[in-house]
Amino acid sequence: MSTVAFGALTTRREKSDSGTSKTDQPPGLNSYIDILAALVPAEVLAIHAIIIAAVTTTNPGGQTQITQPGTLRLAFWLLAGLAAVLFVLGRRPAPTPAAVLQQSGTTAPRWQHLEWQDLIRVLIPPAAFVGWTMLEPTSAWNVVVPDMSTGTRTLIALVGAVLLAAVTKAMASHSDNKPSPRQRGAQPARQKAAAPQAEPADTGTTEAPEGLQEPAPVTPNGVAAQDEPAVPKWVY
Is 39 within 8 Å of 128 (Cβ atoms)? Predict the structure, then answer.
């Protein structure tokens, strides 16, 4: 696989709608592909193999000896750093499609932004490279930590591989569940549509229910005005 592909997969998952990058939308690959790409940094492993051939020799007894330990030590640190750089090159933010920007107006970001989880992702390929050098009998690890036993090297590498695989899967699931730029651009419109409408202000007056009338005023005699008998008035 490729470290650049690991970064590109992460960016492509974030461009797809939430929960669809493993099935319907690109890249349409399970998170195990992310694990494979992250834990097999093919570019730096290929360079490491070439360097090993250049700085080692085989004696008549068939044993491999390192002839240039300083060069090999320098190669170890350079290749670990190169693994991180290759991830960043693949992870570079992608512009939001023009159709999404036109649909959402100014609410969708023009560029995808890096996030703090990328600080974790960028360390995975270098750590995987270190694990591979521990597993190989003759590698740059021989000059970085020359006194470590073979059993210890193998144990650390295998346990580390399991941990890196778990972290990579969690990061892939995080990218898959993130809303895409199109979805983030549509959120303000949905929130505005779901907002409750303002109710009319209360004027302090109430109307009587239909079919009911207000009671008639009561006279000093205790009789309703409408029921009080009419008294003839004399005109003088």
Answer: yes
